[in-house]
């Protein structure tokens, strides 16, 4: 198995505050590397794993499912947690759903969440037929690289494995059901114009989590993959400030 250049996992050892960074369904660590590096530059211990089936070939992704991505996120969380006293989890799109899953499972151990255009629901009416379509065609048209900034790509596959997509959508339902279990401080950053995930996904999260005073920031000059788009510096700045805020003087058993 050959990993595409730039899609390799990223790790940086730093202080006693750990930050787990999770990429989305159509992407790989390429879409998150600048964000992870910006956080690491502040001295934090950062882990950016590559989810199974991503960053290699679309044929690899065809055999992976929501449970595989959750397992990788969970493993990366515990590996990082063993090195530090406090962990903040950051995620883009499906990575946001995975971050929420960790916060639902380990409310006492997740010190904060930073979600960028998090996906817990997709409103595309064509997906109603997906339970049948997935058995008729192995791949669907791509939705990746939704970036406003010219010449920038997240290195997405040229097509979407239909069974993997169906699995992710089913996984989102479980995330939504358990949103009230999320008690970690929350910074949610979304693009006003997003051609992949609707604003209703973020609204649903904000309406159901039990986080104290969740903060929402709306980006005006980016599309879905905002971590590589025009507003990326804002994401980096605001998330670094948030991480400092929620981890200051915090210790976790």
Provide a descriptive summary of the structure in words.
This is Alpha/beta hydrolase. The mean pLDDT is 95. The chain is 36% helix and 17% strand. The protein has a single domain (10-247), classed as 3-Layer(aba) Sandwich (Rossmann fold), CATH 3.40.50.1820. It starts with 9 loop residues before the first strand and ends in a 6-residue tail after the last helix. A seven-stranded mixed sheet has the order 1-3-2-4-5-8-9, sandwiched between helices. Strands 6-7 form a two-stranded antiparallel sheet. It is α/β, with parallel strands linked by helices and 253 residues long.
Low-confidence sequence ranges: none
Q: Which CATH top level class fits?
A: Alpha Beta
**Secondary structure tally: strands:** 9
Shape: globular
Number of helical segments with 4 or more residues: 8
CATH fold-level name: Rossmann fold
CATH superfamily: Alpha/Beta hydrolase fold, catalytic domain
Q: Which range best describes the helical content: under 10%, 10-25%, 25-40%, 40-55%, 55-70% or over 70%?
A: 25-40%
Q: Structural class, please?
A: alpha/beta
Identify the strand order in the major beta sheet: 1-3-2-4-5-8-9
Largest sheet: 7 strands, mixed
GO molecular function: hydrolase activity
Domain Serine aminopeptidase S33: 19-229
Protein name: Alpha/beta hydrolase
Keywords: Hydrolase
Give descriptors for this structure.
253 residues, alpha/beta, Rossmann fold, 7-stranded mixed sheet, two-stranded antiparallel sheet, 9 strands, AB_hydrolase_1, Hydrolase_4, hydrolase activity, hydrolase
